[in-house]
Amino acid sequence: xxxxxxxxxxxxxxxxxxxxxxxxxxxxxxxxxxxxxxxxxxxxxxxxxxxxxxxxxxxxxxxxxxxxxxxxxxxxxxxxxxxxxxxxxxxxxxxxxxxxxxxxxxxxxxxxxxxxxxxxxxxxxxxxxxxxxxxxxxxxxxxxxxxxxxxxxxxxxxxxxxxxxxxxxxxxxxxxxxxxxxxxxxxxxxxxxxxxxxxxxxxxxxxxxxxxxxxxxxxxxxxxxxxxxxxxxxxxxxxxxxxxxxxxxxxxxxxxxxxxxxxxxxxxxxxxxxxxxxxxxxxxxxxxxxxxxxxxxxxxxxxxxxxxxxxxxxxxxxxxxxxxxxxxxxxxxxxxxxxxxxxxxxxxxxxxxxxxxxxxxxxxxxxxxxxxxxxxxxxxxxxxxxxxxxxxxxxxxxxxxxxxxxxxxxxxxxxxxxxxxxxxxxxxxxxxxxxxxxxxxxxxxxxxxxxxxxxxxxxxxxxxxxxxxxxxxxxxxxxxxxxxxxx
Length: 487
What we know:
It holds the Pfam family OTT_1508_deam. Helices cover 58% and strands 7% of the residues. The chain is of the alpha/beta class. The strands form 3 sheets. The protein has a 5-stranded mixed β-sheet. The radius of gyration is 25 Å and the shape is globular.
């Protein structure tokens, strides 16, 4: 037992340091968001997941590291099941009741009627999202004109700006609209001006707070649903790198603010239709032996890299190459070497509700809503769990990004499968992260090697400038590939 516990601690330390390295290399797994493909096959799941996301977001205060997750348990009636990635407080439980009382109240017809609750509970988080919209719009404004040159507009203003009557009436009254490009520019300018009206340090001090936020919602929704922005996001291959770097964050941050209005609107309609008398809720039980744990990683990033490379030391040549790619790597590592790991909220819900012995409803998609996009490790863990037990759990969306605070569940659940003292599901995550870090290091060193002599033939010349670590990485990847084929 002690040996197994020690092995889990070693696995966790190694996983956390590898996640921290991937963070510093600004890694994002572009192959991860395959959950969306499942949703396109199941409209009901997509709708339910959006509602669950909204519930989780409405409970989030904005405190650093705080994440909520939610799902519906349909066994023996309908019940809302909630989880938090840290200890649940009495205030959290009170907020759930107050939120549902607000959305099913007879006088509530739209999100505006729930603003008193939202701006009391979620003010800090709303302020963060408003600030991020301002930054995203500022960045996108520099590529708008260039992106528009490759755009072929529709002849219909309704097709260009669906459901935009409110904005057009406010902005242009009964006058003729200017050019489409001017309308797009006006939208960005208006969003920027509205963001500047907020006191982001203290939202309650904003004059006419609810009205200003409602105006921001109308303007942001008009731009978010525009045909122009949809074309840019639906056909990313047609974008150059500058457009892509600005369009993705803009679309995401617009949606995050709109969640507090359009998302709540949809939740109100759903709640009044399906549970007009409220809904029972409960929080997941605590898992024995799993809590927030502080980990202190190595003083330097050199040792973690050497462990990935499988060597006792890293050459000066390799370190120099990595430093050229990430000049502030040493300072970033020192600032973030202490991490507090915790079991993520999505995993808590899955383990609390999942029963692999009862396969009666395994074919049914089971969405889990979350107040933040699901991290890389949660996505890998849920995918491995589904494959192992034949379940169909779905996280709402993933950003494909590593999170160094992610804790291995280990064998904390009764039906855990062990192999060599390790959880089979955990092992899939550990291997997946190491493989991604190995691939990332190989890519970084390959790019450096290639740029060292851009006129040379890669296949002939690179062998002579490739470091020993680089050769070891290539050999390691070939070996890992052979193992996967054999399995």
